[in-house]
Design brief:
The protein is of the alpha/beta class. It is built from eleven helices and eleven strands. Strands 3-2-1-4-5-6 form a six-stranded parallel beta sheet, sandwiched between helices. Strands 9-10-11 form a three-stranded antiparallel beta sheet. Strands 7-8 form a two-stranded antiparallel sheet. The N terminus is likely disordered.
Amino acid sequence: MFSRTLKPIASVASQNGVKNFSTSSQKNFKVVVAGAAGGIGQPLGLLLKQNALITRLALYDIAPVTPGVAADLSHMDTAAKVSGHKGPEQLDDAIKGADLVVIPAGVPRKPGMTRDDLFNVNASIVRDLAVCIAKNAPKAIVAIITNPVNSMVPIASEVLKKAGVYDPKRVLGVTTLDVVRAAAFIGEINGVDPQSVSIPVIGGHSGVTIIPLLSQSKPAVKLSDQGKIEALTKRIQEAGTEVVKAKAGGGSATLSMAYAGARLAGAVLRGLKGESNVVECAYIKSDLTEAAYFANPVVLGKNGVEKNLGYGNLNDYEKQLLKDAIPELLKNIKTGEDFAKK
């Protein structure tokens, strides 16, 4: 069911290098990174500058270094034209005409901080960006990285509804990092290239809401002991905390998140271009469960989410994980919706 059709970004970078550009079958897109000067935004910009489908890369942030980040990336010998936009007064120009807006903007998680602690600051940022998108690029695909994703996607959705431009197919929460981590850990366990691993991760993007469907992994996970399966599940769920602790107060997952964000962005653009069978997991408006938003594999196409692939058959352990996740998801979603309705 879950087909990993997107080539890893590292190979995309070389394959889509300047020597290999072809304009015959590609459509050119404007992509905006909102929060482009931060720990995720800078490496995300670096990776997106290498994507041959992007002809305009607009970098937005409130940080003084933003024009410098744009100047730095503009020296790369790839086709995308880079522009830097600093501060609220330049936000409209950054967003105008965008095909895809990727939002890593916000404050990072620090040791001892939960995703809920981030909420008020990041919620205001996402709300304001959504207002601008509604005005300047109402047809853009919006890919939200900002945590807590489980609440931020409902916030953006409610803002776009208020503006009369909401299309549920065009608002995605980026949960790709959970998929990337699961594949990395399974590759290590199985002794195989992690890029050969296909593993759906469903639910949401925090703690117990992250549900890796290890029973559907291809190749199968070489773990038969239930205790080890539960330990691997827990590691995937808590992988963000693993990075926060390892950085000892120096930040959260930025490089792996940028990689995952670039992978999802690339998949969105390939879908917009008209490529068939582009499948990724994403957190979207959904009626699969009690939760109004839910992550699972989807087909990406010319209008964003083309088809929801659901999550297939779960084993008893995964059914319990889903049951445990739903109350938390419902709470997170309500928090986002309530904020947006203030």
